[in-house]
Amino acid sequence: MLLTMATLYAPAQTNGSNSPYSRFGLGSLKDQSQGFNKAMSGVALGFRDGNRINMQNPASYSAIDSLSFIFDVGLTLQNVNFKSGGNSINAHNTTLDYINAGFRLCPGLGFSFGFIPFSSIGYNFSESKYLGDHFNSGSTMTYTNSYTGDGGLHEVYVGLGWNPFADLSIGANFGYVWGNYAQNITQTFYENGTATSASNGLRRQIDADLSSYKIDIGIQYPIQLGKNDVLTPGITYGIGHAINSPAHYYSYVANGDSTKSVIEKAFELPTSFGVGLAWAHKEQWKIGLDVTHQRWGECSVPQIINDKFVSTTENYMNRTKIVIGGEFQPDRYSNKYLRRVQYRAGASFSTPYYKVNGHDGPREFGVTAGFALPVSNNINNRSVVNIAFQWGRSVPGVSSLITENYLRLNVGITFNERWFMKWKIQ
User: Fold this and answer.
1) Coil, strand, or helix at residue 1?
2) Which helix (H) or strand (E) holds 37?
3) 14: pLDDT confidence band, cut at 50, 70 and 90?
4) pTM, entire model
5) What angle do CA 320, 324, 325 make, to 5 degrees?
6) Residue 38 — φ and ψ, nearest 5°?
């Protein structure tokens, strides 16, 4: 019941973007990390554990513990500072990050399902320009362009991870992606600071209701490096394709004239590749490195170019992200609580996937830290509360664009219940 209600409620709460850069492409992309790796900057492709759900590489589902039902949920509180020139402004929001669950179906076969945001659109800003005197009458003329946008994409998925032989595991997530895309530009003319009808204003609107499938495939192969060390390479592949949804464009002028255009299959999801490596030492250290690449440069998106509504790849570019992170748990079996806490840290760097006025979009840098607090009582000693702190910075390719600095607090709860234990009475 909780899963159903949360999934229905979640889309309204996950648009959480205040960034003006969410105007481009499909919006601001979500990192799709979860409670266990938020504090490690999202490193995941080589990680496989029996007490976690790692949806970023579905091959990991084959490692889910046979006695467990795992339910995971998380949210983020965010503060963002925007700077441009001498101007600065702060914005706050709270978003639901993910909901998922997993358990083992039979030996060597794990199953997971859940909800996770894919992207978010949310911005509201304007720019004004001085036009000079109005017909030498002494009146000053200005105009203001206002930009607003809202929407984003969300994903529900089911996934399987299978260990067919030896240590090789393969898996796949089968997802359904849906959401809305709405952008508006309004141009208003002012005479001596008052809106005037002497010159025709203009309003442009692009909207679309998007829905499509999404398939991601993963492989993992743990390699034993002696008694205490395991090295696990992981590979993922996401299938790119066109989204079979139209985009609508409306143009309105103050005198009543209007135009309408439609582009069928105006959007695309990119082909993606990921390679990761994770090293585990005893039951104390886990360190991982991921490199992912998304072929956005081959995708199309609707744009207004020279007053024409077209679907183009000109404003996209391929995106690469590098993540490194790790965790340390002094002694998971200790009687001392602080020695059972998992301490985590990570760092990330990513290139943009879109262009802004012909220039490369902002590069993103981030560092993270946090910990996992075990829940210890007579009923439950396997669940954990995950807390992560994130600092990030988006730096544009040219100094005239907006720089973003954000602070995030992520809180997630991993419920790990022994649903499948067989009790015996003697």
Assistant:
1) coil
2) helix 35-38
3) very low
4) 0.88
5) 145
6) -55, -45
